[in-house]
Amino acid sequence: MVTNPEWFDHPTNLVDLWEDSARSFADRPLFGTRGTDGYFHWVTYGEVAGRVHALRAGLACLGVGPGDAVGFIANNRPEWAIAAFATFGLGARFVPMYEAELPSVWRYILQDAEVKVLMVAGQKVLEMLGDRSDLSALEHVVVIDGGGEDSLAVLEQVGRGSPVAAHHPDPMDVATLIYTSGTTGEPKGVLLTHGNFTTNCQAGRHLYPFLGPEDRSLSILPWAHVYGQTGELYHFISFGGSIGVAGGPASIANDLIEVRPTYLITVPRVFNRIYDGVWASLRDHGGLKLKLFEAAVAAARRKRETGRSGLKFRLLDKLVFQKVRDRFGGRLCGALSGSAKMNVEIAQFFFDIGIPVYDCYGLTETSPAVSMNCPSAHKLGSVGRPVEKVTVVIDRSRVDDDSGEGEIIVYGPNVMLGYHNKPQATADVMTSDGGFRTGDRGKLDEDGFLHITGRFKEQYKLENGKYVFPGAVEEEIKLIPYVLNVMVFGEGRAFNECLVVPDLARLRQHGKELGLSVDPEAMLLADDAIGRQVRHLVGLDIANHLLGRFASYEIPRRFHFAVEDFTVANGLLTQTLKLKRKAVMERFADLLQGAGDETLDSL
Predict the structure, then answer these.
(1) Is residue 45 part of a domain?
(2) Collapsing DSSP states into helix, strand and coil, what is residue 340?
(3) Does the pTM of the predicted model rise above 0.90?
(4) Contacts within 8 Å (CB) and 24+ apart, 461-464
(5) pLDDT of the residue at 8
(6) Hey, what long-range contacts does 463-471 have (CB within 8 A, 24 or more apart)?
(7) Residue 298 half-sphere exposure, CB side, CA atoms within 13 Å?
(8) Hey, how many other C-beta atoms are within 10 angstroms of the C-beta on 129?
(9) Beta bridge partners of 395
């Protein structure tokens, strides 16, 4: 990372960012969590500040100081932020880990980061971690939901009796070690500085200046990942906003209604599922409800094209679209979406109903924001313009066509220091003048908007010499209601093939409504003429869905079906829900090496 003194404006570190807001918004709510009584309960900035002071002093009593590493294994909760800001105030490094992670990954991170003090959610995590005798740097383990001498409550109590003034780090001091999810190989610890985070927050703040203390988010993304950490936690704190903590995937629908967020930091899958659910429900009901919805969509399209709303749109908006907005709590006025690009049709739908969803782009190594759409400058299909103080260069050396595309290289105060203990891996991605090679393929259009077209490490070549970027094809297939998950592959093959995980629960429900007695799992996987015919029809339906959206050589012609979904728990997805392609190929090797069913002879 090449530095420029002009990059850093107050606050230049996360301690200042926190203390500024804790003073300015002391009586305002900060975090809301669901209590044992079933309701959300809120704590204020001032209450959290008191716990930060106590824990900072408690950690100091355990010997934590500048340069030390404090680990944290727990889901999003107020103690996550309390531990982070207490750590920063000692000049130490915060090392967050996912609670739903393999113990072997925890152990790797604890060893690599040389964690001195570790905080864990509860006794269960401690038991999963197992023997700690080989973790030579680890001196203390603190249990958050514990009642013994090693509990967080006791450590805070100790700290209240021995207050310690906050250390205010330099912007180039390391704040956090975030370990990449490791789709290939072992995780890499990304060294992110205080200046990385604060400049990224400031860039977002300037693009969304209308957000303020009255705004609220529902925390869906893990703060252990950089997108949730910067885009939501630090950003919302910077303007005095509040954050309700979702209980988990199963409770999000109820949490949205109760927390009533005004702005979400999320991923496309949340909106894809709601869009799909709305249409599926209406098609099932049919009749007047479906006709009203279709009329409302048409009226919204006319409003967008003409700029005039009219009485018909206003009436249909109240009757129809308000019900969709109510699913988000009724106050949501927008969202920032990352991790993958929103489907343009779905994004347009949410714009039309009054919930604009803005695509952004970034990586762990860029803290994360590189580019961002916003109300004052957006273009559907793009991931926005580079944020302030960040420069994007398109390196054409890896592309031999006239598309204008190339590898995206990022320069600016958001670029990491490097990978911890991995000088060669750092050298592989950093240019001599301080740029970060993202490995992503893209282009800048005439208006300066960035478009992502693929990922170089995922691309492969078909037998005919054509290159394929499978991610975009997969995202489109996953929009089909009965598809739970999918992987497209075909390196060195005559055509693309596709592994499909069908949504059996949805298919069973649909079959029940139609009065069918045959189980969809048996029907899809049967090794007989009926099974082959069903798979042929499903494959044909998927291919027809892709026609007109992708080149013919990109559309799969052979389909395989599996019952086991791709999840974090079974090691087929990363914590940020990215596909571990090698792991999927290995898990389903016998199935994918078989002949499968060639559903399409030609396109």
Answers:
(1) yes
(2) coil
(3) no
(4) 461/491, 461/492, 462/490, 462/491, 462/492, 462/493, 462/494, 462/495, 462/496, 462/553, 463/492, 463/493, 463/494, 463/495, 464/494, 464/553
(5) 85
(6) 463/492, 463/493, 463/494, 463/495, 464/494, 464/553, 466/551, 466/553, 468/496, 468/553, 468/554, 469/441, 470/496, 471/340
(7) 7
(8) 18
(9) 407
For the domain that residue 517 is a member of, what is the CATH number?
3.30.300.30
| 391, β-bridge pairs | 411
The residue whose two tokens read 């992110």 is 192
- Asked whether residue 437 is domain-assigned, the answer is no
Question: Is the Cα dihedral 355, 356, 359, 360 positive or negative?
Answer: negative
Residue 399 lies in a domain: no
Closest CA to 499 of 587, 601, 600, 573: 587
According to DSSP, the residues that pair with 467 across neighbouring strands are 461
Is pLDDT of 601 > 60?
no
Instruction: Kindly give the interhelix angle for 470-477 and 529-546, rounded to the nearest 10 degrees.
Output: 110
Range of the domain at 95: 5-204+216-251
- Which two structure tokens, joined as six digits, stand for 285? 């009901």
Last residue of a domain, which of 224, 251, 278?
A: 251
Question: Token pair 């290289």 is at which residue?
Answer: 409
Q: Is 518 exposed, middle or buried (0-12, 13-18, 19+ CB in 10 A)?
A: exposed
Cβ neighbours of residue 452 under 8 Å, at least 6 residues apart? 341, 361, 383, 408, 440, 441, 442
Strand bridging mode 69-73 / 93-97 = parallel
Range scoring the smallest mean pLDDT among 446-460, 505-519, 552-566: 505-519
DSSP 7-39: G--S--SHHHHHHHHHHHTTTSEEEEEE-TTSS
- What pLDDT does residue 487 have? 94
Which residue in the block uniquely carries the two structure tokens 């509040």? 242
Average pLDDT for the chain: 90
Backbone torsions φ then ψ of 164, nearest 5 degrees: -130, 130
Cα–Cα distance between 323 and 320 in angstroms, integer?
6
Contacts of 500 (CB under 8 A, 6+ apart): 477, 483, 485, 486, 538, 542, 559, 560, 561, 562
What 3-state class would DSSP assign to 268?
Answer: helix
CATH of the domain at 103: 3.40.50.12780
Phi first, then psi, for residue 107 (nearest 5°) are: -65, -40
> Mean pLDDT over residues 413-423, rounded?
97
pLDDT digits (tens, 9 = 90+) for 29-67: 999 999 999 999 999 999 999 999 999 999 999 999 999
Please, what sign has the CA dihedral across residues 566, 266, 30, 155?
positive
Task: Pick the closest to residue 467 from 383, 544, 393, 398 (CA basis).
Answer: 398
Q: How many domains does the chain have?
A: 2
Residue 603 is predicted with a pLDDT of 44
Q: Does residue 259 form part of some domain?
A: no
